[in-house]
C-alpha cells in the first residue's frame, strides 16, 4: 500500500485529490498538509511513501519543503503539482529532489498511474516538457556546465551511456529495456549507477547533464 500525503493550500484541491486517490487500489491517503512546513512535520511524524506537493504555498513553499523532505532519512518520493506556466519552479523543484511533476489538470486515471510509476521507479515527465526544461535551465553559463558535465559523463561505461542517452530522450524503463535488449532489472541497475556517477537525483538531471556534455 502506497501511503500518500496531500500538500496544497487549497482545501478543494486536497478534497478532489482525496476523492481521486481514495478509490484507487494500493493507494491510501494518510494525511493532508496546507503548506510546506506542515508537510515536513508530517513526514517526520508518520510513515509516508509519496508526497503530492503544490509549489506555491504560504509559510513554506513546495520547493523548500521538497528540499527538506528529500534530505530526511529514508525520504518519501515527492511529486510536484504545477501548471505549464511555472517551468522555472519545476526546474527548481527537480533540482531540490522531486521525482517528477503532475499538471493540476491531469486526468484522474493518469494521477493514479503516475503515483504507481514513481513508486516503481519510472519517470512521469513528458519528453516535450523535459526538453523545454532543459533549454531553460541550460540558458546561461554553458562553458562551465559543459566542462563539468563532460567530466561526469566520462565516468560512464559504454552501456551506461546508452541508457543515459535513452533516459535523456524521455524513455521509460520498459522502453529502454526493449530498445537495448535488456531486462527491466538490468535497466534499473544501470540507472542507479548512472544517478550515482552523474550526481543526479532524478531523470531530468540526467538529461540536463547529457545535454550539457553534448550527448543529446
Automatic annotation (TrEMBL):
Where would I find the Response regulatory domain in this sequence? 3-119
Q: Which Pfam families match?
A: GerE, Response_reg
List every position bearing 4-aspartylphosphate.
54
Q: Which CDD domains match?
A: LuxR_C_like, REC_NarL-like
Q: Which residues form the HTH luxR-type domain?
A: 149-214
| Annotated keywords | DNA-binding, Phosphoprotein, Transcription, Transcription regulation
Q: Which GO terms describe its molecular function?
A: DNA binding
Q: Which InterPro entries does the UniProt record give?
A: CheY-like_superfamily, NreC/VraR/RcsB-like_REC, Sig_transdc_resp-reg_C-effctor, Sig_transdc_resp-reg_receiver, Tscrpt_reg_LuxR_C, WalR-like
User: Can you tell which superkingdom this protein's organism belongs to?
Assistant: Bacteria
Cross-referenced PANTHER family: TRANSCRIPTIONAL REGULATORY PROTEIN NARL-RELATED (PTHR43214:SF24), TWO-COMPONENT RESPONSE REGULATOR (PTHR43214)
Q: What is this protein called?
A: DNA-binding NarL/FixJ family response regulator
Question: What organism, scientifically named, is this protein from?
Answer: Aeromicrobium tamlense
Amino acid at each position: 500500500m502506497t501511503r500518500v500525503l496531500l500538500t496544497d493550500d487549497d482545501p478543494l484541491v486536497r478534497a478532489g485529490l482525496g476523492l481521486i486517490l481514495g478509490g484507487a487500489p494500493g493507494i491510501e491517503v494518510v494525511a493532508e498538509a496546507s503548506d510546506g512546513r506542515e508537510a515536513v512535520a508530517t513526514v517526520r511524524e508518520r510513515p509516508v511513501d509519496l508526497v503530492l506537493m503544490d509549489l506555491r504555498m504560504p509559510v513554506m513553499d513546495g520547493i523548500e519543503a521538497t528540499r527538506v523532505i528529500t534530505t530526511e532519512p529514508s525520504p518519501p518520493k515527492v511529486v510536484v503539482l504545477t501548471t505549464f506556466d511555472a517551468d522555472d519552479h519545476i526546474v527548481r523543484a527537480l533540482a531540490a529532489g522531486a521525482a517528477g511533476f503532475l499538471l493540476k489538470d491531469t486526468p484522474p486515471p493518469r494521477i493514479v498511474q503516475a503515483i504507481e510509476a514513481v513508486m516503481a521507479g519510472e519517470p512521469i515527465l513528458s519528453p516535450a516538457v523535459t526538453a523545454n526544461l532543459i533549454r531553460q535551465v541550460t540558458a546561461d553559463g554553458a562553458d562551465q556546465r559543459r566542462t563539468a558535465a563532460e567530466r561526469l559523463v566520462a565516468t560512464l561505461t559504454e552501456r551506461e551511456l546508452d541508457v543515459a542517452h535513452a533516459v535523456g530522450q524521455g524513455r521509460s524503463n520498459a522502453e529502454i529495456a526493449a530498445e537495448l535488449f535488456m531486462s527491466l532489472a538490468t535497466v534499473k541497475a544501470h540507472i542507479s549507477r548512472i544517478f550515482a556517477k552523474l550526481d543526479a537525483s532524478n531523470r531530468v538531471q540526467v538529461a540536463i547533464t547529457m545535454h550539457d556534455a553534448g550527448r543529446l
